């Protein structure tokens, strides 16, 4: 009888705890957002335009958000009250992170960031009549309406695929299942060459991301505030993946391969033929990847505070995947800034 009473008490306590957790969760989602604004300046108190300001909620990433500063270095957004890490990134400036406890709306004042002398796009120095010029190796830049990431300048993306590339893109993360998150939300819209693609809309997200090699990607545009020319179906933002096509006359091509541990292999090719204003192109690739996992579980059962028995279990998992893709089409240049194309992916 004593054991039954104790079990009943534990059940009631757990039920009460569950009710409390659910009530707390409902209260959290019901919180009203606060209108927050502020300014990003340099050490000379000059505004820093087009800086990325990310508010990362320490308790719940769902409440995280981000914004770009305007030409006057100002930004504004709506946030749920809480503790945040404020991450500030801008071209030619050092990345800065500060902690803020936000409980009321209004201005947060100015955040000051430090210039990064080694990160300028073009640096020149005169030494006894000799000019030394060095190009920047920073893989991304911030434009008025988007961030642009160039995987060719990032050594971490060499020999990888789209999933590896996205893990290196600021404000974007990818989990082991291939779910892409932008600013803490998985509601992301994918475009390939500016157009919707069914390739990244299939159920197996990881295989879809792995089917596009990094060598086929010219750049990735991260659009957090889509304009009216884009459908507003991705509330977290839009990822526009621009695939390569060559501008050289005649037949051009390249073949790349990679070999990794577990094992992991890939082989990719980029081919194109140009005649006048017309371009025919085909990009294709494939590969094989294996993964291993191990899980150990230890369980101790207690009765009246005393251990009655002990259980230990372990499990291993192995997965194998093959991925292939091909992208082909035609393109015609109407002018230096305008072209029309037809492609199949």
Going by helix content, strand content and strand pairing, the class is mainly beta
The CATH architecture of the largest domain comes to: Beta Complex
Please write the CATH class name of the largest domain.
Mainly Beta
- Helicity range: 10-25%
List the helices and strands in order: HEEEEEEEEEEEHEEEEHEEEEEEE
Largest sheet: 6 strands, mixed
Account of the 3D structure:
The protein has 345 residues and is mainly β. It folds into three domains: 34-116, Immunoglobulin-like; 132-243, TonB-dependent receptor, plug domain (Ferric Hydroxamate Uptake Protein, Chain A, domain 1), CATH 2.170.130.10; 250-344. Helices cover 11% and strands 50% of the residues. It has three helices and 22 strands. It has helices at 2-29, 162-166, 205-210; strands at 34-41, 52-57, 65-68, 74-79, 82-89, 96-102, 106-112, 122-127, 130-135, 140-142, 147-149, 172-174, 180-182, 188-192, 195-196, 217-223, 237-243, 250-260, 264-275, 278-303, 306-333, 339-344. It has a six-stranded mixed β-sheet, with no helix packed on it. A hairpin with a 4-residue loop joins strand 10 (140-142) and strand 11. Residues 1-30, 118-129, 131-136 and 201-205 have low confidence and may be disordered.
Please write out the topology.
Blueprint: H1 2-29, E1 34-41, E2 52-57, E3 65-68, E4 74-79, E5 82-89, E6 96-102, E7 106-112, E8 122-127, E9 130-135, E10 140-142, E11 147-149, H2 162-166, E12 172-174, E13 180-182, E14 188-192, E15 195-196, H3 205-210, E16 217-223, E17 237-243, E18 250-260, E19 264-275, E20 278-303, E21 306-333, E22 339-344
Parallel strand pairs: 1-7, 14-17
Antiparallel strand pairs: 1-4, 2-3, 2-5, 5-6, 8-9, 10-11, 11-16, 12-13, 14-15, 16-17, 18-19, 19-20, 20-21, 21-22
